[in-house]
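Lab manual, section 2.4: Encoding a predicted structure.

Procedure: take the sequence of the chain (532 residues), apply the prediction step described in section 2.3, and record the output as structure tokens. A sample record is shown.
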Amino acid sequence: MTDVSREPLTPAAVLAATPRASVIVGVLRRHGFAPLLKGTHAWPPPEEVRAALEELGSVFVKFGQVLSTRGDLLPPRYIDTLAGLQDRVAQVPLTDVRAVFEADRGIQPEEAFLRFNPTPIAAASMAQVHAAETRDGRPVVVKIQRPDLPARIDEDLRVMGQVAAALDLTVRRLRPFDLPALVADFGRTLHDEADFRREAANMRRFQASLASDPTVWIPGVLDDLSGRCVLTMERSAGLRVEDYVAEHPEAAGALARRLGDLFVRQVFGDGLFHADPHPGNFFILDDRRLCLHDFGMVGELDDRLREALVELVKSTVEGDARSATRAYLDMGLLPAEVDRRSVEADVGELIRDIRSGPLQEVSIGKALEALIRIGGGHRIRQAGTFLLLSRAFVTLEGSMAKLDPELAFIEVFGGAFRQTAERRFSPDRLGRDAVTAAQGLDHLLREAPTDLRRIMGAVADGELGRVVVESGPAARADQAARWGQLRRTVAGGALVIAASILLATGDARRIGLGVALLIIGAWGLRPARVPD
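Recorded output:
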């Protein structure tokens, strides 16, 4: 008799014991996964990986989309291919749609609405969307979950967890990435996404966050017609961005800049950002307001991550590898044996590569992904929000490039960064913080922190906003001037944003520092002349 306990625990052996074994093994082997299933590290080409995940269905498609954010785990060609994963799903029969709606809301959709279109306007891996009209005549869209979705999620996650555990044991190269933890995190995220009450809450949060912006509209949620498996929201009577630009080509450049400005305000304003900013999620209404859709994937930066990101952006633009490395390491989970000098050398090389080329070729998203790959090489685990942010930047830049191929992303984001800082420096904002700021000011004057003295010294020496230009062809003069302008903008903006974060804490010591940084940042945001 064979002692099965002594047989190697390969992914294929694990799959053979699961209910979906024949389907999953057949699909994976057909797409070139046989060596990996035997416990080797030989992956099939990225196109085959994508095709296999799409064929295996919704949970695997979602997992592939998560992997597309893991530049520390997969090479760039896999990242780029998996980023284009699309659901291949059939429409849900109307009888199943009715059953899900009734189980969630207690009545049939035809009873809940004055009109309910039985033909879906969209079908995806987790839900199907129908147009409808409420009893009081309001046009709405109704997102209805696919039947038996929770059971399918649980079944596929069980398979993924077992395979991840087997790969963790058999492929030593993958152990630093902790695949079982990756699958567990993915499972929690997927279950959250399958609860439409969370998406409804996200929509309300975005409405509150962007309430002061009259150029943006977020659809409202109809709570009495929404639940865990059903989400009913106002219908936007606008055009998709690409359709609007087809009718108004002259608006393409300005619209691309609008998207960049809105995203930067989300990230550096409240820290709440739409994590899937592809063209299909942007509409232009008849009054030219920008409408956002699909809030199932949302990221949020806490104060610590926002402060580190502000410093990372500023240091990268300034070419300060040491400060950029420090900020980057503040955003990750470090192994005890991390070699900071080695990380700094890699970050410095990346910054030199970024700064050596034309601004039009600089991609924020690609730069963040490169940082993630550097971190992966040093066994640094990234915060999930940072991974989400890097992929969101890549997606957004793709959306912007479709609108205006000649756009320089970093200059757009730099301008938006400045505008965000100026909004935070507005008299209204300052007025709200004036009383508490004054209370902390004398403490600041008595005990000026070391970092503040360093910043003040840089101002006195003229270092803030200064650019060192290497000798070279005359053609580089304009490039250097533009980098210099960007550096002044980002340096001043970073100080103002960091000051606002400090002022919001309510802590006297941090408020005092925040006031001083605010003053210095305002100096940095003064208009700068760029040589002709």
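Check your result against the sample. The chain is about 60% helix and 10% strand.
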